Amino acid sequence: MRNNLLCAFGLAIAFLASGCSDSKTNKRLPHIGNHSTTEKVVDGKTVIDTNYYQVPEFRFLNQDSVYISSADFADKIYITNFFFTHCPSICPTMQRNLLQVYEKYKDDNRVAFLSHSIDFKYDSPSVLKSYADKLGVTNQQWQFVTGEKKDIYGIADHYYVYTKEDESAPGGYDHQGYLVLIDGQRHIRGAYDGTNDEQVKQLFEDLAILLEENK
Amino acid sequence: MINRAHTLSIISILFSVLMIVFSCQPNVSIETAQYAVNGQKLYVAHCKNCHGAKGEGLGNLYPPLTDTNFLNQNRDKLACIVKNGLSGSIEVSGKIYDTEMPGIPELTPVDIAYILTYVTTSFGNSTTTYTQEEVKKSLGECL
């Protein structure tokens, strides 16, 4: 109960604070996921460190049949999503919108893109390569990866994106079209419905805010 | 008296709305406009994800629907493409596309007529209805 009250109080403060800070530079994105805290003693004083939720390390095969890992995204902001190449429903819209972000930040090495295929049966690296070429991705900034079913679906859970193999869904897989914004420490800083123009606009704004924070 | 004034003002508002609507589509009949409106809803539900809200397509994956030459030259094949899909490669706006397109077999001839009227008048330069009769004739000659 006390925790709930504290939480509500904290939210109210955060809400007020965000309402007051009209200067763009002061705006910070939230950290999504459960936090934990550790106490430590510095110069005789007890200080509390917040440990934000962190997406675990990963390693997947990319469109060039090369293994890439979370180390390749260290200190980079990246936007990630889950799709499959012959997806007839939300993927084309989601990828069309992510392509706009890619084109805006092309050759900006602070920003990267990571699309996971949830069709582990069909989307081999060569299929992903052909898809990337046709989409208009011409450099290594946007990676398309595949992996074992349990690894891909497992990492989706860690990004809080729903994915499921489902024969009744269009194309055989059911999934959410979130574009998830991750900072250089693999903390989740935002999630945007990649099929919703308003939310995609918000992604552009939030990405700019996150880039300021990293300066 | 008040009622009459009220009715008159509603009529005049409706009239001006219609004027605005039709001033943008000077050569399109009311029937064609109705088909296009119905077609837009079906387009959003079945086609927009790949071909885009403005028929712009997506990269080299999905062709645009704005190539008026393609639409005019292949007008009699469009119904079959919508219903049965397409595989193999085609050239649209000078680019080659070979992504397989799924068909939508559950669409009725009138649905297809709505969609094709929308596509050919909004993205192409057609000013006439793609009629149900045209759809039925084309579907009878699918490859």
Automatic annotation (TrEMBL), chain A:
Residues 1-19 form the signal peptide. Disulfide bonds join C87-C91. It comes from the Bacteria. PROSITE patterns: PROKAR_LIPOPROTEIN, THIOREDOXIN_2. Residues 49-212 form the Thioredoxin domain. InterPro entries: SCO1/SenC, Thioredoxin-like_sf, Thioredoxin_domain. It holds the Pfam family SCO1-SenC. This is Protein SCO1/2. Keywords: Copper, Disulfide bond, Metal-binding, Signal. SUPFAM superfamilies: Thioredoxin-like. GO terms for molecular function: metal ion binding. The lineage of its organism: Bacteria, Pseudomonadati, Bacteroidota, Sphingobacteriia, Sphingobacteriales. Cu cation binds at C87, C91, H175. Belongs to the SCO1/2 family.
